[in-house]
From TrEMBL:
Pfam families, sorted: NAD_binding_10 (PF13460)
Stored SUPFAM superfamilies: NAD(P)-binding Rossmann-fold domains
Name of the featured protein: Nucleoside-diphosphate-sugar epimerase
Domain NAD(P)-binding residue range list: 7-190
Biological source species: Agrococcus jenensis
């Protein structure tokens, strides 16, 4: 599988490139700063210089062409509400349009819990971030792509243990970035897990089994007679 990672120079993007390569896949990491080239290459990805804000859908589509899936892991990361709108919001819309133009069928968006960090007094900037994330999800769900939205719990550094909880609705707890990344790799290879929003936290279930379980939970139900 060839996967195009938007936000390829970020922590999740680089970890994902490494995990995909270990799985036998090919990862292309899009980055906007030429100085990030080596970091992506060192992680096992193929660097692709591109700008989510400056480039139109056609230019992004030319970078995505030939890939099987797009993973959107970019984010404004506290650089202000305007950047949040441009990257976490309009950036998803533009990237989804580009994926359609390029004929890339799968699109996985790393999003956030709807009630993430509530009650901690994080202010209007954070509320704006959550509103923008919800809007991006709405836009993606209205496309014809085989979309998947993954809402991770509060992200923690360090090695994972290969186990998570995954479901349509969970109480938010922490999750290791490494476990989230391996969940994404497994989800990309699951033809049954598509067009659904999945929440992921730390938990007791091996990742491959967690993906299979949530895929079964969203599938067709037998009719009771």
């Amino acid at each position: 599988m060839k996967v195009f990672i938007i936000g390829g120079a970020g922590d999740i993007g680089r970890r994902l490139a490494t995990a995909l390569r270990a799985n036998g896949d090919i990862a292309t990491g899009m980055h906007r700063d030429a100085q990030q080239h080596d970091a992506i290459e060192d992680a096992g990805g193929i660097p692709a210089l591109g700008d989510l804000i400056e480039h139109g859908a056609d230019a992004l589509a030319s970078l995505m062409a030939g890939h099987d899936a797009v993973v959107f892991s970019a984010g404004a990361h506290g650089t202000g509400t305007d950047m949040t709108t441009l990257i976490d919001g309009k950036g998803v819309e533009r990237a989804a349009e580009a994926a359609s133009l390029a004929g890339v069928p799968q699109f996985l968006l790393i999003s956030a819990f709807a009630d993430s960090e509530r009650g901690r007094g994080l202010g209007e900037d954070f509320e704006h971030y959550i509103r923008v994330k919800r809007g991006a999800e709405v836009v993606l769900t209205r496309t014809d792509l085989d979309w998947l939205i993954v809402r991770p719990g509060h992200l923690l550094p360090g090695a994972g243990d290969g186990r998570v909880s995954a479901g349509l609705a969970l109480r938010e707890t922490d999750v290791r970035r490494e476990d989230l990344v391996h969940f994404i790799v497994e989800a990309l290879h699951s033809s049954e897990l598509t067009r659904v929003i999945v929440e992921v936290t730390a938990g007791p279930t091996p990742i491959a089994e967690a993906v299979a379980q949530v895929a079964r939970s969203t599938g067709p139900r037998p009719i009771s007679r």
